Amino acid sequence: MNRARAEAQGRRGEWLAGLYLMLTGWRVLARRVKIGVGEVDLIARRGRTVAFVEVKWRANAAALDTAIDARRLARVARAAQALAPRYAGPGDDVRIDVILIAPGRWPRRIVNAWQP
């Protein structure tokens, strides 16, 4: 798959993940936030919980099993740590979630995927 097509599929996956979050009671605060230490695909809030969400889209469900690894999560964690003061207030719970998306499948969510 060429780079432009992969980028378009990734953006579609992020859009679908945002929709999934909204349908499950979350409010999406930001999309594709880039800073020097990394990038967060979605930042969402539900009540006193702020989730920094990494979204992975793959062409088939089997490929989702290897879509996320510790290195990628660590990069998201660094970005989340830098961004947390902007999106989370005192007393808020902050966590990193992963949403895995493949065509013809319901999104699979890994709650609190990063625990240092």
Automatic annotation (TrEMBL):
The record ties this protein, via SUPFAM superfamilies, to: Restriction endonuclease-like (SSF52980)
Extract the InterPro entries matched here: Restrct_endonuc-II-like (IPR011335), tRNA_endonuc-like_dom_sf (IPR011856), UPF0102_YraN-like (IPR003509)
Molecular function terms from GO: endonuclease activity
Keywords, alphabetical? Endonuclease, Hydrolase, Nuclease
Fetch the Pfam families from UniProt. Answer: UPF0102
Family, according to the entry, reads as follows: Belongs to the UPF0102 family.
Q: What's this protein's name?
A: UPF0102 protein J2792_000368
Give the species this sequence originates from: Novosphingobium capsulatum
Q: What is the lineage of its organism?
A: Bacteria, Pseudomonadati, Pseudomonadota, Alphaproteobacteria, Sphingomonadales
